[in-house]
Amino acid sequence: MSPFPLPPGSVIGIVGGGQLGRMLALAAARLGFDVAILTPERDSPAARVAAHGIVAAYEDPDALRRLANLAQVITFEFENVPAAALSGLEALGAQVAPSARALAVAQDRLEEKTFLNAAGIATVGFAAIDGEADLRAAFQRLGAPLLIKTRRGGYDGKGQVWAHRADGAAAALASLGHQPAIAESPADFRREVALIAARGRNGEIALYPLTESHHQNGILHRTSAPAKAPPRLLAEAERIAATLLSALGYVGVLGLELFERDDGRLLVNEFAPRVHNTGHWTLDGCEVDQFEQHIRAVAGWPLGPTEAIHRVEMTNLLGEEAADWARLAHQPETRLWLYGKREATPGRKMGHVNRLSPLDRGV
Ligand code: AMP
Question: Fewer CB in a 10 Å sphere around the end CB: N or C, the chain?
Answer without folding.
Answer: N
